[in-house]
Structures are given as structure tokens and as C-alpha cells.
Specification:
11 helices; transferase; EC 2.5.1.18; GSTK; HCCAis_GSTk; about 10% strand
Length: about 210
């Protein structure tokens, strides 16, 4: 008899490049590790504020390190991630509130599409994100009209508050619920530790079953 899947929650924001890396690795392993991966769109700005933290990209030395780190990790994990030229204006001016409300609306109305739409938003092609994920123009427009509704706003706030209660101070955060215990892991580089907690084998960021398809 196949054991029931273990539950993992992934709290993420499309403004966080490390969230994308962790997202892709967990999506690759969810069947290999028999996990129920629950995607939890959250607002990184609110988590930073609640914890007293600040984005590393706003500190010059960390920003310089971040650009090279993201480039190398993208190559290793085989994610087509590029540091956008307008990254600082995105952080300081635009933020991710509308994008995360949109993903919250997707999760409420079309949860099976959340993985694909999240991935497309990370590709920074928001104008065609929903279409490429298999969503009709009418569906996408309907969701965009809902991002300012109390239901969507409250859901995003509640999810973000849940991440804070787990102890989040940034994103991504993976929360593993195992044998009555809760383990909060920060960052995209804790997958080997996660495998240990699950009693599973870590086979690198691109496991053989996935690598054979690439």
C-alpha cells in the first residue's frame, strides 16, 4: 500500500529569484518524494517589514553578489533565469502586490493552473503569462478584475501572515509537516536537508528522471 503523501507548503513571491529556483526543484521532486506540494503565493515586502528585514539587493555588496549568484545557480539548476536590467526599479517602485494578488486569484479560481501561471510570471512576460499557461483571455481578464476584491486581498494577507507565524523573514520558505511536527526551511538551498527530514534521497537539483527529459 502506497503511503499517503507528506505535505509541504512553499511560500513564494515572484519578486524573489531564489523562490523561482526553489519552486522548480520542488516541482521536480514532488512525485519522486511522494509529497503534496501546496503552493502559497505570499507578499515578500510584508514579510520583510514584519520581520525587520530588508531586500539584499538594496545593499550594494549583496546586490553585486546576488547577480552573479543567480546567474550561476540558474545554470546549475537549469532554470532560464536572468537578472533584469530594471530590477531595482521593480523592487523600489512596482513591487509585486498586483502579481501576487493575481496568483492568489488564480489559486482561488483555477488552482490547477497555479504552477504554470507562477512559472510564466517568473519569466517576466505577464502580458502573456495566463495565455501560455493554457488560460483563455476571458479567464485571465476575469482574474485581473478580481485582484482588488476583498476576497483576494484577504487571502493574500492571510497566507502572508501564515508565513510570518511560521517564522519567515524572507522567501522562499518551505514548511514540512511531518509526524506531527512542523519544520520551516528558508531559502532554495535547503533541499538536501529537506530530503533528510523526509527520509528521501537527494539527487541534485536536476534528478535523473528529469534530466533524461531535458
Amino acid at each position: 500500500m502506497t503511503p499517503a503523501p507528506r505535505t509541504l507548503e512553499l511560500f513564494y513571491d515572484v519578486l524573489s529569484p531564489y523562490s523561482w529556483l526553489g519552486f522548480e526543484v520542488l516541482c521536480r521532486y514532488k512525485k519522486l518524494w511522494n509529497i503534496n506540494l501546496q503552493l502559497r503565493p505570499s507578499l515578500i515586502a510584508a514579510i520583510m517589514k514584519d520581520s525587520g528585514n530588508q531586500p539584499p539587493a538594496l545593499l550594494p555588496r549583496k546586490a553585486q553578489y546576488l547577480q552573479n549568484d543567480i546567474r550561476l545557480l540558474g545554470q546549475q539548476i537549469q532554470v532560464p533565469i536572468q537578472f533584469p536590467k530594471d530590477f531595482f526599479s521593480v523592487i523600489l517602485e512596482k513591487g509585486s502586490l498586483s502579481a501576487m494578488r493575481f496568483l492568489t486569484a488564480v489559486n482561488l479560481e483555477h488552482p490547477k493552473m497555479l504552477e504554470k501561471v507562477s512559472r510564466e510570471l517568473w519569466m517576466r512576460v505577464w502580458s502573456r503569462a495566463a495565455e501560455k499557461a493554457g488560460m483563455s483571455t476571458e479567464q485571465a481578464q476575469g482574474l485581473l478584475e478580481k485582484i482588488s476584491t476583498p476576497k483576494v486581498k484577504n487571502e493574500l494577507r492571510d497566507t502572508t501572515n501564515a508565513a510570518c507565524k511560521y517564522g519567515a523573514f524572507g522567501l522562499p520558505v518551505t514548511v514540512a509537516h511531518l509526524d506531527g511536527q512542523t519544520h520551516m526551511l528558508f531559502g532554495s538551498d535547503r533541499m538536501e536537508l529537506l530530503a533528510h527530514l523526509l527520509g528521501e534521497k537527494w539527487m541534485g537539483p536536476v534528478p535523473p528522471a528529469i534530466n533524461a527529459k531535458i
